[in-house]
Each structure stands twice: as structure tokens, then as C-alpha cells.
Amino acid sequence: MSNREAMLEKLVDLDAEHAKAVAGGGERSVDRHHGRGKLLPRERIELLVDEGSAFLELSPLAGWGSDFAVGASVVTGIGVIEGVECMITANDPTVKGGASNPWTVKKIFRASQIAEENGLPTVSLVESGGADLPTQKEIFIPGGKLFRDITRASARKEPTIALVFGNSTAGGAYVPGMSDYTVMVREQAKVFLGGPPLVKMATGEESDDESLGGAEMHARTSGLADYLAEDEHDAIRIGRRIVARLNWRKGGVEARSARASTTEYAEPDVDPEGLLDLIPTDLKEPFDPREVIRRICDGVSETNGAVFDEFKPLYGPSLVTGWARLHGRPIGILANAQGVLFSQEAQKATQFVQLANQTDTPLLFLHNTTGYMVGKEYEQGGIIKHGAMMINAISNSTVPHLSVIMGASYGAGNYGMNGRAFDPRFLFTWPSAKSAVMGPAQLAGVLEIVAQQSAESKGQPFDAEGFKAIKEVVEAQIEEQSMPQFLSGMLYDDGVIDPRDTRTILAICLSVIENKPIVGTDRFGVFRP
Q1: Is the pTM above the cut of 0.90?
Q2: Pairing state of beta strands 190-192 and 160-169?
Q3: How far apart are the C-alpha atoms of 411 and 438, rounded to whole Å?
Q4: Which one of 6, 70, 180, 317 has the largest count of C-beta atoms within 10 Å of its C-beta?
């Protein structure tokens, strides 16, 4: 099977998983929701964002492989509303009434983190029954952070807007309660801490939905609703007008120098379609990341010059570093070439990260690494301290980082190349990606060696044939757990993407990070000599 055929096959599987998220609670639930005259979350988002603009959906596979619906009963992503980039969250009421499960909470945490790091206003499309009660022990205590994040966003002057389309009960009531602006739909929105049954149990009081928490009551009596919408379309119209009146300015654009103008850019010199041909079916087989760079970065132009100005090309050749532009925006790139990181590569990366911080240039990490080199020669040569130096530089770098895992991302190489634990602003994976402490065969082999040594130390015979079955189970388990759908389901990335969409997605991300000034640092931890 060719590289292209293998990638296309993976993309078919990926589309099928994304379709599960779009399906929400299933055809019956969707039909019932539509039958009530209500829109689905993605339909609401489509009407909310500017016509013809892109919506970058985040974490669509959250909860994959768990007992919960793929997508975690909420849609999150970045969309442009009245010319303003906003973080948008939308409960999916077709999945258990939009109730929040443990993956919902984690997904919204990630959306809040992105909004905070990039200084984005947040628009919440609310229709939620609160916590999924059977899993409350995993939601209740950590879930309070959701409300803390809303109020802290307001304090940072990052506006929060809630459009309430249906039930917003218990903990869900605090989303409109803590937002800067709240819009409620007449005869649909119901916002209360406790519904009529709970009130009856707690106080003995008889009440109905409307008098207890209806939209009109909140608009006329409690004052919780700032705007009373006639229907869902009217709520979306009001939401757009609120954003239009925010007087929003992108702080990073104002701070950017004239030489970093994004008014002109050239399309890539090489067709991005060719990205499907690049990744080998066997990730042990290396490929040239320069071919990826040529297909995602701006092509040659009068303002751009070369596509890629490589830095230190003859030193540490298994890590490619250099400068490029993407949709007119300057970036520094670190990309794995031969997989293994040696001392030279680590030292080269350290210097390059310092240079990017000196010039306030965002960094893009393209992963395909098996990790740092091991062995007596390399240990004596200082691979630990040089790897630590690289990780030190990346940990303390303050320019925005973007990461794309193209192939392997194993061991400490994942850390050195700015994996999830190092908080890149955005991290996406290709369907060809794999990430784990090491490859399945290597891990199973290590376990076999350890078991054999343990048996010998006890003076017992080692049953190699019997351990073969254990190795096969371990290899299968690690293989499954290193796959992109599994990792994306755990929110270790922001989405598994079609390689051909990489340029567009990175361009959106680079635009988003400009909502805050881009300022590099000259402060790093101690570099061990």
C-alpha cells in the first residue's frame, strides 16, 4: 500500500469518528430536538459566525473510547463574529439534555485555557441540564473551575457572553449568572439553581418552570437576563450585536512591527495535496520535513524571499531549524528529520529557541521523533544535560508555540518538541501520528528483558515462550493507546486533522495568538555546562 493510500484510509476512519460527534445523541434525539423548533449546536454556531468565515472546531473526539458520546456533549472552537475572533462553546442538548460528564468538563477547561492564553472573548450557547449525576464525583469538585474561569476572564477584560436557548439548571445556571452579558430566549430558556421538584423537596414550595426561572421572569423581575430574545434566531442576532459593540482590538497586531506585516503572502510553491504522500506507513522510515515545510509555508515572493531560511543546516542534521512565513506571519520552525535527537540537535534547538525569543517570533514544532539517543557513548557525551538544556529553553520560552505531531512522538522527545505537557498554544495531530513513552515493540522488549533479569536474580528459569503471549498483549495495548484517536479522546491534542488542512489551521492559530502582544523572554533556567 502506498503512503497516500494508507493516509486516505486513515482519513476515512477519522471522518467516521467525527461523524459520531456530529450525530450527537442520535437520529431520534435530533429529530425530537428539531421537532421542538430548536436548532442543533453546530447550526447555532453557523448562524452566529460571520458568513463565509471558518470555524475551527477543537477537541471534536473528546471522550473517544470512553462510556460517553464522542464529543463529550459540547462543541468548542474558534469563530469570527462581527470580525472578532471568539472562543465559542455550545452544549449539545441531544446528548442527555446537554448534561456535563467528566470529559465535558475537561473539554471546557481546555477551551477556557485557550481563551485566556490568547485573550479571546467567549460566547457560550447554553442548553444544559447541569452535571451528569451518576458521575458527579468526577465533576462536582473540579467543575467549580469553570465558574472561576468565567469571572477571571471578565476581570481580564475578556468579555463573556451567554446565549441561553433552553434549560440551564443547577451548576449550569452559573454560566449565564456569571457572564458579562446574558441573552435568554422567550418561552425556551429556563435558568434556576433548582427546578420545581427540588424546590418542593427542599422547601415545600409549589412552583412552575416559568415563575421559577423563565426567560421573561429573569428579564422583568430578577434582572438576570440583559436581553429577551423572541426566538433562537433573534438571540443569535442580539449576540452578534453585543460582539459588534465590544470595541475589540487585537493587542498583538498593534504591538507588531511594520516589517511583520501580513498584508501580502504567496501560496506554497508546492501543492499541499502532496502531504498525503510524505508520511511512510512504517514510522521507523525517515522522511524529509523540509518537504512538509515547502507545502505549508508561504512560497517565494518579493516580500518573503526564500520559502525557508534554514539555521545551522550542517550541525545537528536530524533536527531541522529555520525561519519562514505562513500567511504572511513570521515563524520559527523546529522539525525532526531522522527521528533521534542527539546532543548536537539539543544544543542547536536551545540556541534557536533563544533567538526566536530575542525577535518575538512564534515557534512551530513538527514532530517525528523516537526521543533522545541512548547508549554509553551518548550518556558520557552529555545527552542528559543537553536534552535538559533544550527542555529548559522550551519550558521558559514565552513566544507562542504551535505543535503538529506528524509521525512518531516518543519518550522525552515529545517533551523536547513541546508536547502537551509543555502547554503549546495549540497542538494538532495527523492521522499517521503515534505518541507514547516508546514504541510498542521496544516497550514490550524492555519488559521481557526486565522479567528475564528478575527470574535470573531469583535463580528461576525464564519462560520465554510463555512470555511471548504477554508481549503480544502489551504490544497491542500500547499500539492502541498511542493512536491519535485515543490520545485526542483524552484531550492530549486539540484535534486530529487532515494534513492538507494544516496550513489553513495554523494560519487561524497564528491570527488568534495576535490578540495578545508577542513578547519573548531572556530569562531561562540554569543551563548546565
Answers
A1: yes
A2: parallel
A3: 5
A4: 70
